[in-house]
TrEMBL record:
Species annotation: Roseovarius nubinhibens (strain ATCC BAA-591 / DSM 15170 / ISM)
Pfam families in alphabetical order: FRG
InterPro entries to which the protein is assigned, alphabetical: FRG-dom (IPR014966)
Record-given protein name: FRG domain-containing protein
UniProt-listed SMART domains: FRG (SM00901)
Domain FRG: 46-146
Length: 288
């Protein structure tokens, strides 16, 4: 694949991004693109293999919280997780069980905003569209939805990890399944695991109604943490980026609201209610 590189694009990612980016022109086209190839002839059901992630700005790269800010916190990952686990216990609800394994702990940390190597995804294309069109301060910028075929991503994993899925007849991992093969941060980040294509997807425990309502799933890199640029560049046929033009955001937003895909549903509680009301009553600027 050396022909993808150029002096102005030394990593090749911009070339691959251009080839795998699709700009939609209508609400109808957006739905068609997001649910292409959803028909499963074996099941005789429409069941897409894709996971989705929405961004308010199309120019934002696909990076975990840990790898943002030039990756300055990557070397502190172990310390972030260790101290979260040390101090979080006193904040668990009285009826809340302490996490039983490493994956439960890191999912809990991600859920509450700690920079981790995890990245949030959803099974729902409309929920991803919500996150691409929810920030009214970014309505003058193109948004984007990333979609990744999780089945084909898992075909690139090691034999041991693929064997875990086969043994359970599953297509994505759970925290219990992963703890059988990778039980600690040290095992997750071990240099010998730093092989190409090691990105997997797992369903977090039902930590809150927010996790459940957002139909959530997490991705995680095995081995060294960082941006997903190299993985995207090396595996261009299992993902695509769908760009939502700024001029379509108001229409898509209104139709999502009509479908009850709102902050009030996705963030149960007063915070979600206030976010929904703030956006719902934000006046649309006069059209040219």
């Amino acid at each position: 694949m050396t022909d993808r590189f150029s002096p102005t694009d030394p990593t090749g990612i911009e070339t691959v991004l251009d080839a795998r980016t699709r700009r939609i022109g209508s609400w109808g086209e957006l739905q068609e693109v997001l649910l292409e190839d959803a028909w499963n002839p074996r099941m005789l059901r429409h069941r897409s293999h894709h996971l989705f992630r929405g961004h308010s700005r199309a120019d934002v790269p696909l990076s975990s919280g840990l790898s943002r800010h030039d990756g300055r916190q990557v070397v502190l990952e172990k310390h972030l997780l260790r101290n979260f686990k040390k101090y979080a216990r006193s904040h668990l609800e009285p009826n809340e069980h302490e996490p039983s394994n490493f994956w439960h702990w890191i999912a809990l940390a991600q859920h509450h905003g700690l920079p981790t190597r995890l990245l949030d995804w959803t099974y729902s294309p409309l929920i991803a569209a919500h996150f691409a069109c929810w920030d009214f301060q970014e309505f003058d910028r193109d948004g984007a939805i990333w979609m990744v075929d999780s089945h084909r991503a898992h075909d690139l994993l090691s034999d041991n990890l693929r064997g875990l899925l086969r043994a359970q007849g599953a297509h994505v991992f759970t925290d219990e399944m992963l703890s059988e093969e990778i039980a600690s941060f040290e095992e997750l980040s071990a240099p010998q695991r730093n092989t190409a294509g090691q990105v997997l997807f797992f369903e977090p425990p039902s930590l809150s109604a927010r996790i459940v309502n957002q139909y959530a799933c997490f991705s995680v890199q095995i081995g060294e943490a960082g941006g997903l640029d190299t993985w995207l560049c090396d595996n261009p046929n299992i993902w695509q980026k769908v760009v939502i033009p700024a001029e379509l955001k108001w229409e898509i937003r209104d139709k999502l609201d009509q479908s009850n895909i709102t902050e009030r549903v996705l963030f149960p509680g007063l915070d979600g209610l206030c976010a929904w009301l703030s956006r719902q009553y934000y006046p649309r600027p006069p059209q040219e």
